[in-house]
Amino acid sequence: MSGYLFSPQAAGDVFEIWSYIARESVDAANRVEAAIFDACDLLAKFPGSGHFRQDLTERPLRFWTLSRYSKYMVVYRPETVPLQIVAVLHGRRNLPRILKSRP
Description:
The structure is a single chain. By secondary structure, the chain is α+β, with helices and mostly antiparallel strands. The protein has a single domain, classed as YaeB-like fold, CATH 3.30.2310. Helix content is about 40%, strand content about 20%. The chain has three helices and five strands, in the order βααββββα. Strands 1-5-4-3-2 form a five-stranded mixed sheet. The chain is globular and about 35 Å long.
């Protein structure tokens, strides 16, 4: 069993990212998806990683930018066990609006 859990919305985020990239290249979409899962594994082991972004939300969520695909970030609740992934988003989206609508 993994040390993290995607919220339904975060699972939808991953699917949307994969689908968007797969229009051009399924291989590239698979690589980005694998990088997302690898990042979530790392965060589950080290939940203090990443940083808070009070400019985006007042909630105690942490943000982790994917190293190979720096346009994407994982947003998670560091205090939960298993670690709850709240969102996986492209950095150019309206993050405050999206995060306000997430539980």
